[in-house]
Design brief:
The structure holds 2 protein chains of 2 kinds. Helix content of chain A is 25%, strand content 28%. Chain A is α/β, with parallel strands linked by helices. Chain B is an alpha/beta fold. The radius of gyration of chain B is 22 Å and the shape is elongated. The chains are: A alpha/beta, B alpha/beta.
Chain lengths: 700, 305
């Protein structure tokens, strides 16, 4: 609210103050009476009594009020916003209650207090008002249609429950803005009930609420929260005596000012308590616990690490899924008449390591049959080309069906080594040999480190391909007509070194040099072993199964090797049914993206209709631990940040909003009411003073 | 020229009349004339015609004082003792603080003038009694002092004549000095308006009583102080401190009366408890009337004692 003529209010106040001050403190010009001693007069508690005493308080108040109202009327008060004006002159309020349902609201009595505040707000909805309850965590949704019925609003509040999401204010404010902007009511009000975690605040995402919106905050934050959470789990897997043994380690955090002693931490596997250890955690510190090794059962195992209890139970459990590593079956194709040493380096390299374990077999290329490809993950052709005829067709079918093919060229890999089926598989056509032995040899440059094959080598000091020397390699002409191939690496003269092509559901990789030490010294370099593993895993479509996801993430169900840990392949022509941790069912129809949003903490079971529980894929979803940081945001700051800017700058882009003449008149209409009030008071004063005069006259 | 007295046949001098007599001696003589000598007794035993008591002879006593008639009757030596009604020291202690200079509206004399007349009368009267007369004036301290002497009447009257109002005063300090200076018990007449807490006043005058002095307290008040007749709002100025307070007398009169009455009552009660003669003199009263009544009462009371 402002004043068009503030001088009048100041002048009015001064005019009001003058008679009062004169009345109270003015002393008449009287003679001075000498008196022997004032010792008795000084003891009398009041002086100048008649002057200081106001006899008719009601009259005094009436006159003062009348003068004040007159001064205020002449000062021409106006309301700074349309909503204020509307609020002053008419009813109708659009209330949006934003109720935080992130899982941190489950801390202590936060949720109970939040519900109480929400109920108070919706109970205050009067006739002509409308309200909407918006529940928000990571996303936001309206719990009810905008209504003025208190029962419906009450029901929306009463049925709300804290979820598993993290706090994000931006979606909720965006939704609230939408409701408020669409409202025809003149008054707009937003009530935000939350624990106001700073982690949920992203200033660049948050938009201000519409002009004229009154923003109120209710904070249920605990001034000194104490919370223990299981921040993460890691596994050390080892194969001993043919059985996979796993050591589980968990990291615990203590967001509290009190150190915890001998906190029990439990490991559950398959629904059974497996081990319990204790841990000491310093105040506002972290600690790690390691459980003893155990044999991993066959199939999918659901595991949980639990710590606590404390005020917030949700983050005391951390779920994961473990399943035995999938063995990649590799078939080495050797050229007819080729040396046994040709596959020596590859065979030895694949024999090392168990993540995943490789099962390697070899065949002469002319002995390849369709039966050899059954159950294979990847076929590696070592200077053996791609066979023609049935073997070639079988190989093409294998790749199209999801198998992998890695072709390494060499002395025998001229154009004649590739049958007609090769054109449908390879990303390029074989050419002549490039001789680099006369110089110091070619170097591998232009590596696409963003590709999964080279991703492990992308970090500094994690693999140096530049020390490898390549003395010979095949010239390969990229199949640019169909743009089917991608070059993942090239030599320093620009010739392709590694090409990739997707064929059907399979992958074909073409390495233009040999994988032994005849044409290069790559097998003698440290990067050789991980490079071979990466080529085999890429060809075999191997992706390390994710032991857990975070709530809010999306699990891809189309590719079992990336989305779930089970082995069962889902038919793309059938519905998939996912059972949520709370028991709900989500149907994922075919033809769409086979993905499911993980909104709850716990285990999701994904299966085809009619499939048994044993074959279901299991996805573990854990809470986002950013929510365990209770560092609060000042609610006043929050309100100031989302409150609409002052009129004149509230429009988008800071442009002043247009003000209509009617609106301008409405904003300035207060003076009229003030004037009427002043005249009413003066009338009352006249009547009262007349009565008082009649009463006092006879008495005097 | 005279004021009604309530005593049949008596005519007393109005203070306004006294104010027109410049000569204090004449004034005193006029006032005291007609009083009977010997209204008060000397506190000392000495040679006198008034027998006091017999006492057993002690070696060293003058044998001329032995009552031989009693020896003849009792065969024992007794000495006769007499009350000495002469040779008494009379000192007037006069408060000359500014509050004493107050003169109510329509009054002919101020409290200080009235006190001066009273002091002169007492001096004259005492001299008539053949007492030694002295005076001490004081405010916050002793201002003037004339030791008691049979020859000092003129000096005393002269001192009284040139009294002017002093500075802000108190009782304790000057009275304690006076008490220290008197070596011989005397008759002390304290003239003041006693504007102090009654307990403090009695405490101060008891310093004089402790030395065996016979103390008479004259409180001089203007009728305005007793009735508080003011009716218009005014700034009231304390004559002692100069402090000014704006007052509406109408609203205060009743409480003032209560406080003043309580003050006077307390003073009277405390003086009585301490066997100190006390008289309140209103400056509207004829001085000889007041003096006569007081001295008459005192004489009557001394006989009772």
């Amino acid at each position: 609210m402002g004043l068009l003529a503030p001088f009048f209010i100041a002048a009015g106040l001064i005019a009001l103050a003058v008679p009062i001050v004169v009345h109270l403190i003015h002393r008449e010009r009287s003679e001075t009476v000498a008196f022997p001693s004032l010792m008795f007069l000084r003891k009398i508690p009041y002086r100048s009594v008649r002057r200081q005493k106001i006899r008719h308080w009601l009259l005094f108040v009436l006159r003062c009020l009348a003068l004040l109202l007159l001064a205020a009327a002449f000062a021409r008060p106006f309301l700074s916003s349309a909503s204020q004006a509307a609020a002053a002159f008419s009813g109708g309020r659009e209330l949006v209650v934003l109720l935080d349902r992130s899982y941190s609201m489950g801390y202590g009595d936060h949720w109970r207090r939040a519900l109480a505040a929400a109920r108070t707000a919706v109970d205050g909805v009067k006739t002509g008002d409308r309200a909407t309850v918006i529940l928000f965590a990571g996303d936001a949704r309206a719990a009810n249609r905008t209504t003025g019925e208190r029962a419906a609003l009450r029901a929306a509040v009463d049925t709300a429950q804290p979820g598993s999401g993290v706090t994000r204010y931006a979606p909720a404010l965006k939704l609230a803005r939408q409701f408020l902007e669409e409202s025809p009511l003149p008054r707009r009000e937003a009530l935000i009930i939350s624990d106001f975690q700073r982690a949920g605040w992203a200033a660049e995402e948050v938009s201000r609420l519409p002009s004229g919106t009154e923003v109120t905050t209710v904070s249920v934050a605990d001034p000194a929260p104490a919370n223990v959470s299981v921040a993460g789990v890691s596994f050390q897997r080892d194969i001993q005596a043919g059985r996979e043994r796993v050591v589980v380690s968990a990291r615990l955090t203590n967001h509290g000012a009190v150190a915890l002693k001998r906190l029990p931490v439990k490991l559950e596997l398959g629904g059974r308590d497996l081990q319990t250890v204790t841990s000491d955690i310093a105040a506002n510190g972290a600690a790690g616990v390691t459980f003893t090794a155990f044999n991993l059962p066959d199939g999918v195992s659901r595991g949980t690490v639990r710590a606590g209890p404390d005020n917030l139970l949700a983050d005391n459990a951390f779920h994961f899924v473990l399943s035995p590593e999938r063995t990649l079956s590799v078939l080495l194709l050797e050229p007819v008449g080729g040396s046994a040493d040709l596959s020596l380096y590859v065979r030895r390299a694949l024999a090392v390591g168990d993540r995943p374990p490789f099962r390697v077999e070899s065949r002469r290329v002319n002995q390849l049959t369709q039966a050899d490809l059954a159950g294979r993950s990847v076929v590696v052709s070592l200077d053996a080309g791609v066979p023609a005829g049935d073997a070639g067709r079988a190989l093409t079918e294998f790749v199209t069906g999801g198998g992998g093919l890695l072709v390494a060229m060499g002395e025998r890999s001229g154009p004649a080594a590739f049958g007609p089926e090769a054109a449908a598989l390879l990303p390029g056509r074989s050419g002549g040999i490039i001789e680099r032995a006369t110089t110091s040899g070619g170097r591998l440059t232009g590596i696409d480190v963003s590709h999964p094959v080279f991703e492990p080598f992308s970090a500094p000091r994690s693999g140096d391909f530049s020390s490898a020397r390549f003395f010979r390699y095949r010239r390969v002409t990229l199949d640019t007509v169909n743009a089917k191939g991608a070059m993942l690496a090239r030599f320093d003269d620009g010739a392709p070194a590694l090409l990739e092509r997707r064929v059907g559901r399979g992958t074909v990789l073409l390495w233009t040099s040999t994988l032994d030490n005849f044409w290069s010294d790559l097998p003698l370099q440290p990067v050789y072993l991980p490079f071979i593993h990466q080529l085999a895993k890429r060809g075999g479509g191997y992706t390390e199964a994710k032991a857990w996801f975070s709530v809010g993430q999306v699990a891809d169900l189309t590719d079992p090797r990336t989305a779930a840990s089970g082995n069962a392949g889902a038919s793309e022509r059938e519905n998939l049914v996912a059972q949520t941790p709370s028991g709900g069912r989500v149907v994922v129809p075919p033809g769409t993206s086979r993905a499911i949003a993980l909104n709850e903490q716990g285990f999701y079971e994904v299966r085809r209709p009619g499939e048994g529980a044993g074959t279901a894929r299991v996805v573990a979803a854990n809470l986002d631990l950013s929510e365990t940081d209770f560092t609060p945001l000042d609610p006043q700051e929050f309100a100031a940040a989302v409150r609409p800017q002052a009129r004149g700058l509230a429009g988008r882009g800071g442009e002043p909003e247009p003000v209509t003449a009617a609106e301008r008149e409405q904003r300035q209409a207060l003076w009229w009411y003030l004037l009427v009030g002043a005249f009413a008071l003066l009338t009352a004063e006249t009547i009262l003073s007349n009565r008082l005069s009649k009463v006092t006259a006879p008495a005097s | 020229m005279t004021a009604p007295t309530g005593i049949p046949g008596a005519r007393f001098l109005d203070p306004a009349t006294l104010a027109r007599i410049d000569n204090l001696e004449l004034l005193a003589r006029t006032v005291v004339d007609g009083f009977i000598n010997g209204l008060h007794h000397s506190p000392y035993l000495g040679l006198s015609v008034d027998f006091a008591e017999h006492r057993a002879y002690m070696p060293g006593d003058d044998i001329r004082r032995i009552d031989w008639r009693l020896f003849a009757r009792s065969d024992r030596f007794y000495v006769k003792e007499f009350e000495a009604d002469t040779n008494a020291n009379v000192s007037i202690l006069m408060d000359i603080s500014p509050s004493m200079s107050f003169r109510g509206e329509g009054r002919a004399v101020s409290k200080l003038d009235y006190a001066r007349y009273l002091a002169a009368c007492l001096a004259w009267f005492s001299r008539q009694q053949r007492d030694r007369v002295g005076i001490v004036t004081f405010d916050a301290d002793v201002v003037d002092r004339v030791p008691p002497s049979a020859k000092h009447l003129n000096i005393v009257l002269h001192t009284i004549d040139r009294i002017t109002s002093g500075k802000q005063g108190t009782l304790r300090t000057p009275l304690s000095r006076v008490a220290e200076s008197f070596r011989r018990p005397s008759i002390l007449a304290l003239i003041s308006d006693l504007y102090e807490d009654p307990a403090e006043v009695v405490s101060a005058v008891n310093l004089l009583r402790a030395k065996g002095n016979d103390l008479i307290v004259f409180q001089i008040m203007d009728p305005s102080e007793l009735t508080f007749p003011f009716d218009r709002p005014a700034n009231f100025e304390d004559l002692e401190s100069g402090e000014r307070i704006p007052l509406v007398p109408d609203q205060l009169r009743e409480q003032y009366h209560e406080l003043m009455s309580a003050h006077l009552k307390q003073l009277k009660q405390r003086f009585t408890d301490n066997q100190i003669d006390y008289a309140l003199f209103d400056t509207s009263q004829p001085l000889d009337y007041a003096l006569f009544h007081f001295l008459s009462n005192r004489e009557r009371m001394s006989r009772v004692r």
